[in-house]
Every structure is written in structure tokens, then in C-alpha cells.
Amino acid sequence: MRTTHISRVITLTLAGVLMTMMTWAQGDKANRPSPPATASGKIKDATITINYSSPSVKGRQVWDPSGTLAPYGKVWRAGANEATIFETDKDIKIEGKTLPAGKYSLFAIPDQKEWKIIFNSQTGQWGIKRGGEANRDPANDVLTVSVKPATAPLTERLVYNVTGKGVVLKWETVEVPIAIQ
Description:
With 181 residues, this protein is mostly beta strands. The chain has one domain (32-179). 13% of the residues lie in helices and 42% in strands. Strand 9 (150-163) and strand 10 (166-179) form a beta hairpin.
């Protein structure tokens, strides 16, 4: 009788632990302050997909030389949470330079007059390190291009658009077109 009681307690405890672990594992990323988003489209015969987390402005100055959200002159993860992923199923030319088909982490170095867009072969990492700097190993950079930002109407939440001519990043009052062929 005592053995049966102990077996029941152990079984119920294990069931409770298992259900708790399943609940945590099913955590809904859509409830994050910067929810996941995807931009996808065709450019000529290549399918481009960008998976990113979309932070909001929330009254903050995003492009700030002092370094609060996306500091000028420093590597930024081009989104929030995990590193932004850029994927192409065909070789493409970005700003005239060849990027082989594949999956890349996308980083940027924003500035007022020119941005550097960086495609890095390391994927799956969290977007920043503990100290707040971007989680990028420059040894894995595959391609870096320069692009010109433009002023745009306020966009509260970071968004990427895949157009027939390339990709456009929009956030706050900045729009960054990246030409793709």
C-alpha cells in the first residue's frame, strides 16, 4: 500500500514537471515586445526571405550617435532578439557584388550619410552579446556593401520589404534601400 502511494506521488510529480517543461517550450514569440516577422519575395528568379524581430520606436530616438538603440558607426543586428536572417535560394548581386545562394545573418553599420550592410555566414546566434555589442564574428563576413539611407515618414515598427528591385529596411524616419539583381 505504501509503495503504491509513493509510486503515485512520483508519477504525479514527473507529470507536473513534464507539463511545466512543455509549457515553457511552447513560449509564444509573438508576445515578445519585438515580435518575429518575415519579409519574402522574388527578385528575378531568386526567392529572398528575411526573418527578423521587429522592435518599435516607442517614442525613442532610434538612430542615435550616443548609442541607445542603433548607434551610428557601430555594428547593429538589424532587428531585435535573434540575429536577423537573410536567405536567398539563388546567387544574387547586391549593390553589384555577388552573394552566393545561402542563409546569412544580416548586420548593419548605420550612419547619417552611408550604411554598411554585412552578410555573415554564422547563423542561429542571439543578436547581441552580454555587453550589448552585436554578436558578429567579422571572420565570417561574406559580403559588405555600402548604401545610402533616405528620410521617410515615421514607421513605428521595424519592417523589411522585398521589392522587385531589392530590399528596403524602414524604421523610425529612415529608409534604407539595398539594390539586388
